[in-house]
Design a protein that fits this description.
2 domains, 10 strands, 209 residues, single chain, alpha+beta
Length: 209
C-alpha cells in the first residue's frame, strides 16, 4: 500500500523540453497499479484542435455555477456523454496542456493520495514514470521512461511497450503466440483384469502432464 509513484509530464517543442507537471502518488505506485492506470489513460487519449459537439459543452454545462442556466435535459445528455467516455477510458484533449489538467482531474479523488510537487523536485521515488510528448512527431506518439528506485536501469519505451510492461493489453497490441497442443499417451492404472489401459490427452502448454 505504501509504495510511492512519481509521474512527470514533459513536452518536446522544437528540441526544447518543457516540464508541465510532477505529481506523486502516496501508494500503489508499482507497474501493475499506477503503471496500469497510466497506460490505460494514455491509450485512451484523443487529441483535437478545438472542441465540437457534446465535448464542447462539458465545461460549461457540468460546471455547478453555470449548469442552472441550461435546460436540465441538455445537462443530463452531456452527463451521459461524459460517463460513456469514462466507461470506455476515452479522454478527449484539446492539446497536451489539456491532457495534463485532465490527468489530475481523473486521478485526484479527494484529500491525500495524490500530491503536486515543485518542478524542481528530484526524480526520486519507488517507481518513476516520465511521459514525453513530441509536438513535432508525425504520429505525436508518447514515449515513456520508467525505473524502479535508485538501482534499476531506466527503460525507454513506446506506449505499446509500456502497456506490455504494465499488463494493459489492447486488441491491436501484439499477442503472444500460443504453443501448439501436443497429444501425449499415458498408461492408466490397471483395470482389474490384469491389463493396463491407456488414454491420450492434450496439454495446453505442450508439455503434457
Amino acid at each position: 500500500m505504501g509504495t510511492g509513484g512519481l509521474v512527470v509530464f514533459r513536452s518536446q517543442i522544437g528540441g526544447k523540453t518543457e516540464v508541465y507537471l510532477k505529481v506523486k502518488f502516496h501508494a500503489d505506485g508499482d507497474y501493475f497499479s499506477l503503471g496500469f492506470k497510466l497506460a490505460r489513460f494514455l491509450s485512451g487519449v484523443v487529441f483535437t484542435n478545438g472542441l465540437s459537439g457534446l465535448d464542447s459543452l462539458e465545461g460549461p454545462l457540468l460546471n455547478p455555477d453555470l449548469a442552472g442556466f441550461f435546460p436540465p435535459e441538455r445537462v443530463e445528455e452531456v452527463k451521459r456523454h461524459q460517463l460513456e467516455k469514462l466507461k470506455n477510458h476515452k479522454t478527449v484533449c484539446n492539446g497536451f496542456d489539456c491532457l495534463v489538467a485532465q490527468f489530475v482531474s481523473q486521478f485526484k479523488h479527494g484529500p491525500g493520495g495524490l500530491y503536486i510537487l515543485p518542478l524542481s523536485a528530484p526524480l526520486e521515488c519507488e517507481f518513476v514514470y516520465v511521459v514525453d510528448y513530441d509536438y513535432g512527431s508525425e504520429s505525436s506518439a508518447f514515449n515513456l521512461t520508467t525505473w524502479q528506485g535508485k538501482g534499476e536501469e531506466m527503460k525507454n519505451l513506446t506506449l505499446a511497450a509500456f502497456r506490455s510492461l504494465c499488463n494493459y493489453v489492447l486488441p491491436e497490441d501484439p499477442q503472444p503466440e500460443a504453443k501448439p497442443l501436443k497429444k501425449q499417451r499415458v498408461e492408466s492404472p490397471s483395470r482389474g483384469d490384469g491389463q493396463s489401459g491407456s488414454c491420450s490427452f492434450e496439454s495446453v502448454d505442450g508439455t503434457g502432464g
